[in-house]
Every structure is written in structure tokens, then in C-alpha cells.
Amino acid sequence: MRKAIFPGSFDPITLGHEDIIKRGIPLFDEIVIAIGINAEKKYMFPLAERKRFIEETFKDEPKVSVITYEGLTIDLCKRINANFILRGLRNPADFEFEKAIAHTNRQLSKIETVFLLTAAKTSYISSSIVRDVLRNGGEYQMLVPKAVRIL
To answer: Fewest C-beta atoms under 10 Å: which of 42, 109, 148, 149?
Structure first.
């Protein structure tokens, strides 16, 4: 069984995240969207709300589930028997950052990282941009899935 973890903070989930997950569905038997918990990080949205956004976005997709976790992603992979980590790449800086993490994860485990390039139409979107738009009262709706547009 090809089971992948798609880790992130998803604060909030964006159309870029949604695109990577949808494009990953045919590649894997199951995708577990794993919301990481970092006590040192300040989030705009509470964990329960971030989880609800994702669950609502993928409510009709049986191959997608959502969990929360703390600690190393590879430890989560081992715990739930996932053999892949799915990651999206927007630009060369993402690649360099993600490459280092993928090499480290591969060194520490047998977990493979699968990279998908973001679609051109969503490559500029990041959660931090969405949060900035929201903080400043801007039109954010075209950057996020419908579940997040109810704010």
C-alpha cells in the first residue's frame, strides 16, 4: 500500500495545498494530511479550525484523512505505516529547503519524499501571504478553498 503523509501547519490551507493533494491522490492509496503542532509558533487559526478547514475541503475524498501530530514527521510515518512524504515545491528556495529535509529524513529512515511542482496558477500562494491579506482586510477568497472562505 502506498501511504503518504502531507505535513504542514496549514495556517490556513491554501489553493496551492489543495492542488498538491488533489494531484497526489492518483499516486497514492492514501494521503494523510498531518497538521504539525509547534508550541513555539504563533498561529492565526486554532488547530481545531485548521483541521476543520481541511476536513471540509476533502470531505468527499475517501483516500484523504486529517490528523494532528507533534515531533518528527518520520516518527509519525513509522507510527502509522506511511512510506512516503508528499511535498509541494513553489520555487528554487523551496527546493533547497525541502531537499535538505528529504536527505535528512532518508538518512534517518527509509521514508521517501515525493515532490510535486505547484501549478503555475497557484505557485505564488503561501499561507503567510494569505495571513497578511487577512490581517489587512484584503480579498483573500481567491487564495483558499471554499471551507476557509466563510470567515
So the answer is: 42
112 known ligand binder: no
89 in a known ligand binding site: yes
| Containing structural domain, residue 129 | 3-148
The model's pTM is 0.93
Question: Taking Cα atoms as reference points, which of 106, 102, 88 lies closest to residue 21?
Answer: 88
Total domains in the chain come to 1
23 is catalytic: no
Return the CATH number at 142: 3.40.50.620
Per-residue model confidence as pLDDT tens digits over 60-117: 999 999 999 999 999 999 999 999 999 999 988 889 999 999 999 999 998 999 999 9
Q: Measured between alpha carbons, how far is 19 from 106 in angstroms, rounded to an integer?
A: 25
127 catalytic per annotation: yes
